[in-house]
C-alpha cells in the first residue's frame, strides 16, 4: 500500500465519500510526508492565508502525470516543494501537522478529479490502504527499483559499504543478499589486474590525470596510493 509515510502509520479516520473524501493518516515514528505520485505541484501553501484554520490549512496539491487526478496532502506543518515543480513518487514534500480545520496532527490524504470537490476518487482503491482504523506499514519505498548485484559489488569495491561485519549488516538491513553480493565482489576482485599492469595503463594515458585518475582508479577498485608510486618509478 502506498501511503505518504515511509514506514508505519495509522488510519485515524476512514474514507466516507462526500462526508469525508479522504483518509486521515498519522505517522507513527516519522512525520515526514512523501509524494505518492509523480507529477506537477499545483498548490503548495495555505488554503486561505487570511484564515489558517480554514480547510486544508497548509497543503500540497499534485497533478498526476497524464491524468486529471489531483493528490492532496492536507494539514501540514511544513512544505518543502513549490508550485510548478515536478516531484517524483517517494520525494519528500512536507511534514505532517495540524493546520487548517484540524484538531490533532494528521494528514488528510485524498484524490479529486480535476481538483473538483465533485469528483471524489476512492482513495482506498488508489492507495490500497484499507478503509479501517488501524496501524499499517507503507510500501511506498519498497516498490522502488533495487540495485543489481553487479552495481552493489562495484560499490562495495569502491568502499561504500564498509568491510567485514559492517558490510554484511549494512547490505542485509538495506534488503540485499549479502552472500550474492560478496560472491560478485570476489569474482570482480579475482579478475583485477596487477598494480604494475595498471601503472603501465596509467602511463599509456588510459586513466586520465590528477583527480580524474584518482576517481577512476578508486571506482575500479584500485588504490591510487599504491599505483602512483609505481608510475613514478617507471617514469624515472
Ligand atoms: Zn480528513
Structure description:
With about 240 residues, the chain is of the alpha+beta class. It has 2 domains: about 10-135, Glucose Permease (Domain IIA), CATH 2.70.70.10; about 150-235, no CATH class. The chain is built from 7 helices and 11 strands. The chain has helices at about 125, 150-155, 165-175, 180-190, 195-205, 210-220, 225-235, and strands at about 10-15, 25, 30-35, 40-45, 60-65, 70-75, 80, 85, 90-95, 105-115, 135. Strands 8-4-5-6-10-2-1-11 form an 8-stranded antiparallel β-sheet. A 3-stranded antiparallel β-sheet has the order 3-9-7, with no helix packed on it. Helix 5 (about 195-205) packs across helix 7. The longest helix has 13 residues, at about 180-190. The radius of gyration is 25 Å and the shape is elongated. It binds zinc ion (ZN). Zinc ion binds next to loops. Zinc ion binds near residues 13, 24 and 108.
Amino acid at each position: 500500500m502506498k501511503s505518504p509515510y515511509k514506514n508505519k502509520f495509522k488510519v485515524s479516520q476512514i474514507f466516507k465519500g462526500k462526508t469525508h473524501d479522504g483518509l486521515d493518516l498519522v505517522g507513527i515514528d516519522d512525520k515526514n510526508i512523501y509524494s505518492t505520485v509523480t507529477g506537477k505541484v499545483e498548490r503548495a501553501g495555505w488554503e486561505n492565508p487570511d484564515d489558517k484554520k480554514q480547510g486544508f490549512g497548509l497543503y500540497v496539491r499534485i497533478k498526476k502525470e497524464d491524468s486529471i487526478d489531483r493528490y492532496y496532502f492536507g494539514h501540514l506543518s511544513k512544505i518543502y516543494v513549490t508550485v510548478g515543480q515536478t516531484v517524483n513518487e517517494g520525494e519528500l514534500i512536507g511534514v505532517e501537522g495540524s493546520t487548517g480545520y484540524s484538531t490533532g496532527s494528521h494528514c488528510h490524504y485524498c484524490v479529486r478529479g480535476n481538483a473538483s470537490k465533485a469528483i471524489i476518487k476512492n482513495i482506498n482503491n488508489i492507495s490500497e490502504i484499507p478503509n479501517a482504523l488501524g496501524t499499517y506499514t507503507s510500501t511506498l519505498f519498497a516498490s522502488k527499483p533495487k540495485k543489481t548485484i553487479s552495481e552493489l559489488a562495484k560499490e562495495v569495491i569502491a568502499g561504500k559499504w564498509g568491510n567485514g561485519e559492517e558490510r554484511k549488516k549494512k547490505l542485509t538491513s538495506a534488503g540485499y543478499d549479502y552472500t550474492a553480493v560478496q560472491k560478485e565482489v570476489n569474482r570482480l576482485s579475482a579478475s583485477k589486474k596487477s598494480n604494475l599492469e595498471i601503472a603501465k595503463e596509467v602511463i599509456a594515458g588510459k586513466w586520465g590525470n590528477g583527480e580524474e585518475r584518482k576517481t577512476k582508479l578508486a571506482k575500479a577498485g584500485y588504490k591510487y596510493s599504491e599505483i602512483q608510486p609505481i608510475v613514478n618509478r617507471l617514469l624515472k
